[in-house]
Design a protein that fits this description.
Layout: E1 2-3, E2 7-10, E3 20-23, H1 27-32, E4 39-40, H2 50-56, E5 63-66, H3 71-82, E6 87-90, H4 93-99
Parallel strand pairs: 2-6, 3-4, 3-5, 5-6
Antiparallel strand pairs: 1-2
């Protein structure tokens, strides 16, 4: 599956709990609710914090990039692919994540919401 101009895309239903997830939403969105275990680097800080991703991403593993609905994550995915990394956009983002019944946690660890 592909988003826009050839950005590799995967559906939420194809993800396992072991997959590496990068959330590129802004701080307020993350705080309201996110996938537990995801790495959070807002798109607005992505270039300056790129080293955090390279330190934490699985060596040679796939990076699943997610945002609210898939637009921002598609842009970050395209950038990562250009850098030679194995990255895919999560189709539908956190909206599809929550709608599919996957857990969403807030900053305090309590159940969260996608905003």
């Amino acid at each position: 599956m592909h988003f826009g101009s050839g950005v590799p895309t995967v559906g939420v239903d194809a993800l396992s709990s072991d997959d590496f997830l990068l959330d590129v939403r802004e701080d307020d969105e993350w705080g309201a609710g996110h996938a537990e275990g995801a790495l959070h680097i807002p798109m607005s800080d992505f270039v300056t914090r790129f080293g955090e991703l390279t330190e934490k991403a699985p060596d040679g593993g796939r990076i699943h990039v997610i945002c609210r609905s898939g637009g921002r994550s598609a842009q970050v995915t395209a950038y990562l692919v250009q850098q030679g990394m194995d990255a895919v956009n999560v189709d539908g983002g956190m909206q599809f994540w929550a709608a599919s019944g996957r857990p969403v946690v807030g900053a305090d660890g309590a159940p969260g919401a996608v905003i």
